[in-house]
């Protein structure tokens, strides 16, 4: 079966997952992590992509980003991928592919799932047993939203601004939201939908995407199509 084209539309937040080939590390040290984030900063600005949240793990990364144009997200990912793989292969004296195929992505309904997706990214290092709390991990956007650092890569989504009238109120509300955790079924939904390329949202959102998207946003129901 031919693989589906990516489901990408400008103006919508997209959850992106990129894994290392055979789950191998994609970074060797903090220098690699800093370079990867620098590449995302320059490429996101060049291709008009707002990066709302991210987390860099040893063998994969997640992004939550909104492209301004239809090709913005793909162009950003291609620019970063080419530059980083060339650098990483030269530095580690390796050859061949670094990534496990193409990056995976899909659209996320902002008002229903964006904040949950951000928390899901923040909690990734905690689930992996790397840290006890999201604020203990230096390679995600959590510290920016918690008021610990200023991260030039991060562009807050309007929903974050709605969490409070002052920076302190927003930071506190977001920290409490992450501390409350994400339901297991939502974690699974965000992962599975992104890996399979199906949109995440309620019935009304998915109906809107059916009219706007270049291909279907949800899998077909099992069985023979009506009228056949």
Helix and strand layout, with pairings?
Blueprint: E1 14-19, H1 30-46, E2 49-56, E3 60-67, H2 72-92, E4 104-107, H3 110-122, H4 124-127, H5 142-145, H6 158-161, H7 167-180, H8 184-196, H9 203-212
Pfam families: Y1_Tnp
Biased composition (Basic residues): 217-228
GO molecular function: DNA binding; transposase activity
Task: Summarize, please.
With 228 residues, the chain is an alpha+beta fold. The protein has 9 helices and 4 strands, in the order βαββαβααααααα. Helix 1 (30-46) packs antiparallel against helix 2 (72-92).
List keywords for this structure.
globular; Alpha-Beta Plaits; alpha+beta; 228 residues
Helix-strand string? EHEEHEHHHHHHH
Report mean pLDDT, rounded to a whole number.
93
Number of strands: 4
Structural class: alpha+beta
Spans with pLDDT under 50 lasting ≥5 residues? Answer: none
* Secondary structure: helix percent: 40-55%
CATH superfamily: Transposase IS200-like
> What topology, given as strand order, has the largest sheet?
2-3-1-4
Number of domains: 1
* Major beta-sheet overview: 4 strands, antiparallel
- The name of the CATH topology is Alpha-Beta Plaits
The gyration radius over C-alpha positions equals: 18 Å
CATH class designation: Alpha Beta
**In the CATH hierarchy, what is the architecture at level 2?**
2-Layer Sandwich
The number of distinct helices, counting runs of at least 4 residues, comes to 9
Global outline: globular
N-to-C terminal Cα separation, in Å? 21 Å
Strand percentage lies at 5-15%
């Amino acid at each position: 079966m031919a693989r589906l084209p990516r489901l990408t539309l400008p103006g919508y937040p997209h959850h992106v997952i990129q894994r290392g080939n055979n789950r191998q590390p994609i970074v060797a040290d903090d220098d690699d992590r800093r370079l990867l984030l620098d590449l995302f900063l320059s490429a996101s600005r060049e291709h008009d992509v707002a990066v709302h949240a991210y987390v860099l793990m040893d063998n994969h990364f997640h992004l939550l980003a909104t492209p301004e144009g239809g090709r913005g997200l793909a162009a950003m990912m291609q620019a970063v991928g080419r530059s980083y793989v060339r650098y990483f292969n030269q530095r580690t004296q390796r050859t061949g592919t670094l990534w496990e195929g193409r990056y995976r992505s899909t659209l996320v309904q902002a008002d229903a799932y964006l904040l949950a997706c951000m928390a899901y990214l923040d909690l990734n290092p905690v689930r992996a047993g790397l840290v006890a709390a999201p604020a203990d991990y230096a390679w995600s956007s959590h510290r920016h939203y918690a008021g610990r650092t200023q991260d030039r890569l991060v562009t807050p989504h309007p929903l974050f601004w709605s969490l409070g009238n002052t920076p302190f109120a927003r930071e506190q509300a977001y920290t409490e939201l992450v501390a409350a955790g994400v339901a297991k079924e939502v974690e699974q939904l965000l992962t599975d939908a992104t890996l399979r390329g199906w949109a995440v949202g309620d019935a009304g959102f998915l109906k809107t995407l059916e009219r706007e998207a270049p291909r279907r946003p949800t899998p077909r129901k099992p069985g023979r199509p009506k009228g056949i």
